[in-house]
Amino acid sequence: MLLKGRELRTTQLHLLCYNLFAFHRRTMVPPNENGASPKLEGKHAAIIVCWLLGNGCLFPWNSMLTIEDYYVYLFPRYHSTRVLSLVYQPFALVTIALLAYNEANINTRRRNLSGYILFSVSSLAVLVLDLATSGRGGLGTYIGICVTAAAFGISDAHVQGGMVGDLSFMQPELVQSFLAGLAASGALTSTLRIFTKAVFENSKNGLRKGAILFYAISAFYELQCVLLYAFVFPKLPIVKYYRAKAAAEGSKTVSADLAAGGIQKTTEIVG
């Protein structure tokens, strides 16, 4: 009887050791050829890219709000300071509600890229609209500005929710960096607006020239965000690791992200 009890305890101990070893192997991340874990490799670069992408998420809309002084001068009868916000919010709310309802079946990469591309095109449209009308106001120009404000709302709904969801299964520092970029966008656009106004302070049509320069910078920055998300972000080792892990755990929204990072979709659980 005593012998059987010892054998039982020995068997239980062996099973416990085996389970611990199996758990360790399942959760252990093998180092790459440089000795760094792919779970951590490229983390600092990813943090910087996430900050830039977060900044780009609100940069165009904050730019439009920051040059309200120009729109007040251009459209004195149309109350642009109030109307643009009223146009922006419903489009953002309805779009994000639709995306949230269908989130399980939406291609995350296509969603985020669509948002950044629309941001870039809309920012460029504001610039082209002003140049095409030679800085003249009027109802047609005002409607065009309102359409771009609505486009900013749709873009924000695509990017902000999509990026937060994309980063939520990665390390917390990446989400924090993206949100920090969102928060810094207002301060950055305000500083940039002060600079552009100061550059043309004493020139003829200085207010308009400052606004044109401001939106040219905004459109260029959004183009950089498109390139960052399309070609740089998916190839970072830490991003590839977490996306492969999400796919292995059953996520249906990261297949395009894996292809962009050069990863074959697999059913094997990573990490």
From TrEMBL:
Keywords attached to this entry: Membrane, Transmembrane, Transmembrane helix, Transport
Q: A GO molecular function for this record? A: nucleoside transmembrane transporter activity
The transmembrane residues are 45-63, 83-101, 113-133, 139-157, 178-200, 212-233
Q: Does the keyword Transmembrane helix apply?
A: yes
What topology in the membrane does the UniProt record assign? Answer: Multi-pass membrane protein
Q: Where in the cell is it found?
A: Membrane
Location (main, coarse)? membrane
- Gene Ontology annotations for the cellular component aspect, listed alphabetically: plasma membrane
Q: Which family does it belong to?
A: Belongs to the SLC29A/ENT transporter (TC 2.A.57) family.
Listed name of the protein: Equilibrative nucleotide transporter 3
Organism, per UniProt? Saponaria officinalis
